Amino acid sequence: MSPVMEGYNFAYLDEATKRMLRRAILKAVAIPGHQIPFGAREMPLPYGWGTGGIQVTAAILGPSDTLKVIDQGADDTTNAVSIRRFFTRVAGVATTERTSEATIIQTRHRIPEQALREDQVIVYQVPQPEPLSRLEPRRAETKRLHSLADYGLMHVRLYEDIARYGHIAKAYDYPVMVNGRYLMAPSPIPAFDNPKMDRMPALQLFGAGREKRIYAVPPYTEVKSLDFEDHPFRPIRAPHACALCGSRESYLDEVITDDRGGRLFVCSDTDYCSGRVALREAAE
Amino acid sequence: MTRPMLEARGLTLHFGAIPALVDVAIDVAEGEVVAIVGESGSGKTTLLRVLSGLMPPDAGTVRWLGEDVHAMGEAARRRLLRTDWGFVHQNPRDGLRLNVSAGGNVGERLMAVGARHYGNIRGEALSWLAKVEIDATRIDDLPRTFSGGMQQRLQIARTLVTHPKLVFMDEPTGGLDVSVQARLLDLIRSLSRELGLSVLIVTHDIAAARLLADRILVMRRGRVVEQGLTDRVLDDPQHPYTQLLVSSVLAA
């Protein structure tokens, strides 16, 4: 484990910046699903690598917290390892790969398979916080649409999918209504994870660094995926069992094993998968 | 006569020193087709924009069923624009979403007012495409692959799908060739009669006004110089400007 670096404030950001972030977070929690602008700082990693998530984590991190960072469900990928090491060096906090032991989970593109608790916070890295961005490029106009709760446009997009493909083709960043009021982009998590957001006991915070927006879903808030009555929302999952742990419930990644068409499906959540493997080995 | 649905009084609007509207009053009753004619720059389109709440006047009021349109909140005005009202733009590209299929365009207003059943929305879209004489096989095509006349008919279908009570039309036949114009006018006339629609139509085409309108208003330099029943105004014009306008129509 690398030692705590000298010369940096706790968790890298200065206290005034953290205060600004916390005010934005409080406002976001007070208005579930509403995007709050904030003054995103330059971070020692590029935009698109989680600058928004890392700033939110820095603002809520305390010395007694235990941090878990996942990237596409995995704890051992570059992005996850770098961010974990970053906070070890600038804040000296404990880190873990176990979902159950973490108090703060920063994530890119997944929600852990294991259900989260009231004493946990999940921080999402968000590339594009505006769910209407592809449909209405003008920021001033989307702001007005949000304020008037005028979301027919999003349904037009879903209608187009069904007309063209026979089903709603959006498989990630699937738009949701929060608390029956705000349309929200859940960040690029698979649609499979959307139901986990509904009435989740943990606080959910979303940070978009490049776009300079923070939004939040407080614990036990209704999060509903958009759909049609005759084309209900379906979480999509590869119809296989995990090659390592045999799970038929978890979200799977497809792994190409050779150049002759060989492939296998494994859990995207590495902690969940290794936990199940360990359990099975213990039983044997 | 019953109380008019749309009542405007004393509308005045200046663009800098230029008077766009000067003390304009207009009523539209239920099921009535009213045409506003006049030369370019006479304030026709501005009047339409003020009446439909898109632009606030300097003075005067617009009342819809007794309620002041410019005093209500933006949310209420937008709701009005997509339920009780419709707006057909001169250029169909302004009124359509060109990257959304014809069916999606017709369905948008339905979805905006809360329709959430795909089958019903599609059924409604198909029936409206039939009403405006667009082939059902084109439902999933993008409007940019349509001809100008078809785009305009699609815009009308998209506007009428929520059964508005009043439709504002800003030169709906502008830029179309005469045979297409004739069919479109025929379509507007039959739909407005069938559905009991009120229509407020802006046009510089006197022949179109005669064909469609019950009443006619002649505008010049922001003022209504003459108004009355269509046949009366066109057959017996009183104001010199109306006389000029009527006499300058080309006969084929």
What labels describe this entry?
heterodimer, A: 284 residues, alpha/beta, Rossmann fold, seven-stranded mixed beta sheet, three-stranded antiparallel beta sheet, 7 helices, 29% helix, globular, B: 252 residues, four-stranded antiparallel beta sheet, 10 helices, 10 strands, 25% strand
Strands in their spatial order, largest beta sheet of chain B? 6-7-8-3-9-10
| CATH architectural label of the largest domain in chain A | 3-Layer(aba) Sandwich
Estimate percent helicity of chain B.
Answer: 25-40%
Question: Considering the protein shown, what is the CATH homologous superfamily of chain B?
Answer: P-loop containing nucleotide triphosphate hydrolases
Provide the gyration radius of chain A in Å: 19 Å
Q: Which homologous superfamily in CATH is the superfamily of the largest domain in chain A? A: Bacterial phosphonate metabolism protein PhnH
- Helix and strand composition category of chain A: alpha/beta
For the biggest sheet of chain B, the summary is: 6 strands, mixed
Form type of chain A: globular
Spans of chain B of at least 5 consecutive residues whose pLDDT stays below 50 are none
Overall tally of structural domains of chain B = 1
Biggest sheet features of chain A: 7 strands, mixed
Calculate the terminal CA-CA distance of chain B, rounded to whole Å. Answer: 38 Å
CATH topology of chain B: Rossmann fold
Domain ABC transporter (chain B): 6-246
Protein name (chain B): Phosphonate C-P lyase system protein PhnK
Keywords (chain B): ATP-binding, Lyase, Nucleotide-binding
GO biological process, one term (chain B): organic phosphonate catabolic process
Architecture overview:
The complex is a heterodimer of chains A (284) and B (252). Chain A is α/β, with parallel strands linked by helices and 284 residues long. Chain A has two domains: 167 residues, Rossmann fold (3-Layer(aba) Sandwich); 48 residues. Helices cover 29% and strands 18% of the residues of chain A. In chain A, the strands form three sheets. Chain A has a seven-stranded mixed beta sheet with strand order 1-9-8-5-4-2-3. The longest helix of chain A is centred in the N-terminal third of the chain and has 16 residues. Chain A starts with 14 loop residues before the first helix and ends with a helix. Chain B is α/β, with parallel strands linked by helices and 252 residues long. Chain B has one domain: Rossmann fold (3-Layer(aba) Sandwich), CATH 3.40.50. Helix content of chain B is 39%, strand content 25%. The chains are: A alpha/beta (284), B alpha/beta (252). Chains A and B meet through helix 5 of A and helix 2, helix 4 and helix 5 of B.
